[in-house]
Design a protein that fits this description.
3 domains; alpha/beta; 10 helices; TIM Barrel; eight-stranded parallel beta sheet; 614 residues; six-stranded antiparallel beta sheet; Trefoil (Acidic Fibroblast Growth Factor, subunit A); Immunoglobulin-like
């Protein structure tokens, strides 16, 4: 992603339209003002498994190669060590040579000489931090390509030119040579992304970049996959890293369906620069389900001015950190991505002042450095609250953690919960300007004690704070205003309990019913046919059987199939999503009359797809 950075600086000492929060699913009737808040509910059913949380090594490594080795080592500790972010993935930029690129730091060196030989001494900065990531044991090392070497592009540049069809095999061999070289030197790249934001022309040449038409993406994936397979390389392919989720959902099904392509694709990758709403995020999950692959959110930055949409601003405060944390929450809880990867770990574009919000800089880094370091010798590091916000997840939500949706959170509060190795990890965003009470009930493995409570707020960075009370499967605490808090709780497996109650459509105010003939809404009467039980398998069982998404539509069936047609995700935003199709439970035509049909439909964020419990 390209942003233009001003070259102004102001030295200070180093310092260690927002997405709408919709009505929560399974929310009990509002409590009296003087009563304890109703408990939010942790789903008994497991959602996706988390693969990793990380950040990118473009473009800052090209500057940091000139820094004192002690500063480089400090940066590595800040990113990769348990005392720092403990990143579980790191994106290494395989350069295209930088030919024609107007921003020197974004003109990444390649390894290919004009005569076809290799010069492995190039890209010193990139290699330095990739090696650090490997030494710290970062789980997923990901090589990604912005542009093929310039000699193989249509314009002879590392920006704006297409990869010539006749050089697709040459490019595949080059990438395989790079991964093979690193592997022989003890740095195994676990994944390769052969093109980044292929929907972007990059014609302004502010950075490396290579547009890749939809009908060429499958060719490149097949060429690279086949080359690696022939060499017995284990590096997996991810694609297609579209800059917008809307392009991802429309274009991935086109290229991955081409014969022989899907076998080489390990993960689907998307960026979120279109500021997707809940419906568009839900479409990511639907797309992933339709092609049988897990999705990753692999790049985002540069939002601000109170919105998660693209805006020029530099904001090192908790305000922008909370926006970042909201994006992470949405990616995990709505699109059900299995990875979150921030754009650049470091950046220099802080505008006029590294310690104060201003409109001249950019919110693309976690840590900043002086853009004029080469002339003034300043190698200080400037921290933003985004650094600490990412750490509220990356330090605790480790690879292999299993997400469990949380419903019924208080207004202005977002809660995500993860199960791993006998512990619960709960990350809570409180966007409210006042302290907010939270009761959180677990409908599975019971929390028995809190072992950690860590908070980032306007005046705290990973501060150890009071642990919540735990009683009878419920955790109770008060969230500080404008804060991100992570709780770690020991757990005891006492058997999952089911959530029960009527499911009420937000738009209609009427209850979900289903039988062998189909599903519909009806005036809520409290009848047995309007009560549903949601269990650890993810099934919704009513008086007439299991809610099932079959070829003829939604029905209630007596037989349990134990497959995705009977499994549902209850999202915190009110969506009820079928795991087989990735589609939402939807009142057809936004109807509100008794007997109106309930169907599966692509998630759109509408009120006719939002449900609460009574």
């Amino acid at each position: 992603m390209h942003v233009s950075h001003p070259r102004k600086r102001f030295l200070l000492p180093a310092a260690c339209a927002a997405l709408t929060v919709t009505g929560a699913l399974l929310t009990s009737p509002a409590a009296r003002a003087d009563a304890a808040p109703a408990a939010a509910e942790v789903s008994p059913h497991a959602a996706q498994t988390i693969d990793d949380i990380g950040a990118s090594g473009a473009w800052w490594v090209n500057d940091l190669q000139h820094f004192d080795p002690k500063v480089q080592a400090r940066v590595a500790r800040l990113l990769f060590s348990p005392q720092g972010l403990a990143l579980s993935s790191y994106r290494y930029n395989i350069g295209g040579g930088g030919v024609g690129v107007t921003t020197p730091a974004r003109a990444a060196e390649d390894f290919l000489a004009a005569d076809g030989s290799y010069d492995w001494s190039r890209d010193k900065g990139g290699r330095t931090f990739l090696k650090y990531a490997a030494q710290y044991g970062v789980k997923d090392l990901i090589g990604f390509v912005n542009s093929a070497p310039a000699q193989w592009t249509t314009n002879g540049k590392s920006c704006g030119g297409l990869l010539k069809t006749e050089h697709e095999t040459d490019f595949a061999k080059y990438v395989a040579d790079v991964t093979g070289h690193f592997a022989r030197h003890g740095v195994k790249l676990d994944y390769i992304s052969p093109f980044n934001e292929p929907d972007n022309s990059f014609a302004d040449c502010g950075q490396e970049g290579m547009p890749v038409p939809v009908d060429q993406r499958d060719d490149i994936v097949r060429a690279l996959g086949a080359e690696q397979r022939a060499r017995h390389q284990k590096t997996a392919v991810i694609a297609d890293e579209s800059s917008k989720t809307t392009q991802f959902t429309s274009e991935v099904p086109q290229w991955i369906a081409q014969p022989g392509t899907a076998q080489y694709v390990s993960r689907l990758a998307h960026h979120t620069y279109n500021n997707p709403d809940d419906g568009q995020l839900g479409n990511v999950y639907e797309t992933a389900k339709s092609v049988g692959r897990t999705s990753w959110a692999t790049e985002i930055c540069c939002f601000g001015k109170g919105s998660t949409g693209w805006n020029q601003e530099y904001d090192p405060t908790i305000d922008n950190a909370l926006l970042m944390s909201r994006i992470i929450y949405k990616d995990f809880a709505t699109s059900h991505d299995s990875a979150f990867q921030w754009w650049v770990a470091l950046a220099s574009g802080y505008g006029t002042d590294p310690d104060t919000r201003n409109d001249q800089g950019w919110n693309d880094g976690l840590i900043y450095y002086d853009p004029d370091y080469a002339t003034n010798g300043d190698q200080s590091l400037y921290f933003t609250k985004r650094y600490y916000a990412l750490g509220q997840y990356s330090r605790f939500v480790r690879p292999g953690a299993v997400a469990h949706n949380v419903t019924g959170a208080p207004d202005g509060v977002e809660v995500s919960s993860y199960d791993r190795n006998g512990q619960w990890v709960v990350v809570v965003n409180n966007h409210n300007t006042t302290d907010t009470a939270l009761n959180l009930h677990f409908n599975g493995k019971a929390p028995v004690r809190a072992t950690q409570a860590v908070r980032t707020s306007a005046d705290e960075n990973w501060a150890k704070v009071a642990k919540p009370a735990v009683s009878g499967g419920t955790v109770s605490t008060t969230l500080a205003a404008r804060s991100i808090t992570t709780y770690v709780l020991d757990q005891q497996d006492q058997g999952a309990t089911a959530l029960t109650g009527a499911l009420v459509g937000r738009q209609s105010g009427k209850c979900l019913t289903a039988d062998a003939s189909g599903a519909a809404i009806a005036s809520c009467t409290g009848a047995a046919g309007q009560s549903w039980s949601y269990d650890a398998r993810g099934t919704l069982k009513g008086a007439n059987g299991y809610l099932t998404a079959g070829s003829s539509g939604l029905t209630a069936t007596a037989a349990a199939t134990d497959d995705g047609t009977q499994r549902w995700l209850l999202n915190g935003n009110g969506q009820i999503v079928n795991e087989a199709s990735g589609k939402c439970l939807d009142v057809s035509g936004q109807a509100t009359a008794d007997g109106s049909k309930v169907i599966l439909y692509s998630c759109n964020g509408g009120a006719n797809e939002t449900w609460t419990r009574r």
